[in-house]
Amino acid sequence: MKKVFVFFSVFFFQSILFGQQNQLWKSYFSYSNIKDLSPSADKVYAAAENALFSKNLSTGELKTTTSIEGFKAEIITAMHHSTAFNKTLVGNNNGLLLVVDEVAGTVLNVIDIVNKPTIPPNKKKINDIYEHEGKVYLSCDFGVCVFDLTIDQFGDTFFIGPAGEEVEVYQTTVHNNYIYAVTSIYGIRRAEITNPNLVDFSQWSVFDAGYWSGIETFQNQLVASNSNTTVYRHTGSAFSPLLNVGQPIIDLEAYDNRLTITGNNHVYVYNENFMELAHITQIPEVVSLFSCATTIGDKIFVGTADKGLYETATTNLSAFVNNTPNGPFRNNIFNVKKAPNFLWAVYGDYTKQYNPYPLDEFDISKYSEQNGWTSIPYSNLLGAKSLTRIGISPASNNVFVSSYFSGLLKIDAQENVTLFNQTNTGPNGLESLDIGDPSYIDIRVNGPTFDKNGNLWMTNSRIKKAIKVMKADGNWQSYTLENITTNPIDDDYASMVIDKNNTKWIPSYRNGVIAFNENYNNKFILIKEGSGSGNLPNNDVRCVAIDNKNQLWIGTFDGLRVIPSVDRFLSEDTLESNSIIILEDGLAQELFYQQSIWDIAVDGSNRKWVAIAEAGVFLLSPNGQETIYHFTMENSPLPSNNINDIEIDGETGEVYFATDRGLVSFKGVSTRPAEDLSNVYVYPNPVRPGYEGTVKISGLIDNANVKITDIEGNLVYETTSEGGTIEWDTRAFGKHKVASGVYMIFIAAEDGVETKVKKVMIVR
Fold first, then answer.
1. Which residues form a coiled coil (predicted)?
2. pTM to 2 decimals?
3. What is the rounded distance in angstroms from the CA atom of residue 742 to the CA atom of residue 276?
4. Distance CA 269, CA 259 (A)
């Protein structure tokens, strides 16, 4: 597409300066899934699913590093902090190595393993990172790689199978001038660390032919974990049992004078004399599996699979402190919804084929500026599984959450929970799909949406009476799709929208868009595939959105269509959608031709945010002819190109992107237009030296004329507002930057009756 506005060119570079992070983005990551820990004298470093954090042992300060700082992990599998170089190295399942340099303030993306063509993609995982004399040894699924911390470059790669073949290496260590490598099928292999020809597989020999899972050097002895759930130490002549954990050992960590051994339900800590100091089997009131652990002096840090990082001490094992940065319950958020005081998030989902299995049992999260992230635990949700979409009552702010298996949840202001299902909604209420077994209950509700009269509409998939409404008085009503759509008992539905005429526009999996209005004698119109039937490129419709000019934007599995006016439903019996034609390199092209569109959101300036499967998100001009931004994980802080949901805060313009690897937001400027000019606000003000962003003028009414002049009255910028906020790039009509000084901002309503004058100071 032409006219692409390149915004985050800094993110194209391999080495990313995070000291100058872009202030237009904000992250809301979960830190509950701890992948690895690394100790130092004054801090403990933790790798979560795709973000880092550290705790200062003296001050207690928690510091996070996320995609906002340029840290964009794939799936973290190993982590190590080098105290000598003040660098944190993070390995990923695809071979990506991230190097965070706290002194230089950079994140280095090292892609040598990722780009190795001779190694299969599924054999590039980094399992462990071990440091020795300025180099780190990466234990990978194919062998061992060496990375030089002094120059931040890869060195040799060792394929250490008996015939030089690839072999999975779980962990390495150096002891008495030998490097030891634990392999998956060839036992522990070793070679002299000073040997200049370690790339020659014949230089490696078998140290022990058993089946081992990890190895460390502790108190000048080798300590290794065996696949038989036992930890051994090598006495110089043979391995001697130290501890039988009774379950697979998933983490072996030696630091200073402490040895820490971790299984899913056990953490053991030993001192320098191999005497047991601690045995942890449970964190009080925390139900989770352990994933890793480390010990610094008397402080023990335990990472969990889904509850974050906890700290205790060998002197008081009954007291635990949660060291987890505040965040949502998990990163893979399926739907977010902005209420006046909260941002709500749910994690249940379904596949592209609307299959909710395996059923999810997750918390519901909400965020506020005052309290951060809190959760309603699954144990309080009355067994409702696979929670997919959120609706907010405009009258009471009660929250309604659809379950794609259990019905509909209602959550009031005190977080009291009610579950609506087939038992309490009457004969016209919610229904289970019919599989011939009355004892099997499966109620697939989706997309709860309120109309202007306070009635809550939703879909109930795979039944004939698929359109349901809980009226404002609490009564339920159903509307059948039998004889309207093809095989409604086999159809599923995404989130509907309701227009100003109370017409419901329902995206379906097999029948295109279903338009329905009960106030017009239960009128239905189907917008389907093919000319004369609706002109959709595919009957699989994933999302619909109504813009500020009452146009219906339709996202399908194979492209985009637009209905010019939703009012046509009232007077016409058929509706045809149109594609958007753009010019690309002088040729006419269909916008998003054959691309799968997951979500569309309309901002206060009538611009469209469009999420494309595996391609990030586009911001389009109101008519779709111009691409303003195209954000991907390669050129922006998006942690993934797979966006599940887009939500816009109409008051602030903040745009939330829920991805399969975390939630981030872009501080947009398109807010709802104000009723008058009484609250016009200019920011930043003053504009200080070095600021590269734009000046925002918010609190505008729609179609206001805005003129900016210097103090002598010379015009430097003029525009008309669409929505509640405009931006000025501090240039004179888009050319050169204006000089230091005070600039006058004159604002007038379209009819000239209401005016406002503001000032902004610019300091170069």
1. none
2. 0.89
3. 70
4. 6
- Strand, helix or coil for residue 309: strand
How many residues make up the chain in this entry? 764
CA distance 333 to 318: 34
Q: Are 526 and 567 contacting, i.e. CB atoms less than 8 angstroms apart?
A: no
Which residues have C-beta within 8 Å of that of residue 141, sequence separation ≥ 6?
A: 122, 123, 124, 125, 127, 166, 168, 169
Distance CA 134, CA 151 (A): 10
Q: Can you read off the two tokens belonging to residue 24?
A: 């237009």
Q: Which residue has the tokens 């017409």?
A: 503
**Cα-atom radius of gyration of the chain, to the nearest Å?**
30
Residue in the block written with tokens 């490097």: 179
Instruction: Name the residue among 685, 683, 762, 757 with its Cα closest to residue 727.
Output: 683
Domain covering 681-762, topology: Immunoglobulin-like (2.60.40)
The string of DSSP codes covering 509-523 is SSS-EEEEEGGGTSE
Domain boundaries, the chain: 329-462, 681-762
Measuring CA to CA, which residue among 700, 755, 750, 756 is closest to residue 728?
700
246: Cβ–Cβ under 8 A, 6 or more apart, which residues?
229, 263, 266
Q: Which pLDDT tens digit goes with each residue over 99-157?
A: 999 888 899 999 999 999 999 999 999 999 999 999 999 999 999 999 999 999 999 99
Residue linked to tokens 């130290």: 242
Instruction: Let me know if 375 is exposed, middle or buried by CB neighbors in 10 A (0-12, 13-18, 19+).
Output: middle
Cβ-proximal residues to 270 (8 Å cutoff; 6+ apart), any chain: 242, 258, 259, 260, 261, 276, 277
pLDDT along the chain (764 residues), means of 10: 32 40 82 98 96 97 95 96 97 97 91 94 97 98 98 96 97 98 97 97 97 97 96 94 96 97 98 97 96 98 97 96 97 96 96 96 96 97 98 94 98 97 97 89 97 97 98 97 96 98 98 98 97 96 96 98 98 97 89 97 94 97 94 95 96 93 87 86 90 87 93 93 88 89 94 91 93
Look up residue 663 and give its amino acid: L
Count of CB atoms within 10 A of residue 504's CB? 22
Q: How far is residue 193's CA from residue 131's CA, in Å, rounded to a whole number?
A: 13
Provide the CATH topology of domain 329-462.
Methylamine Dehydrogenase; Chain H (2.130.10)
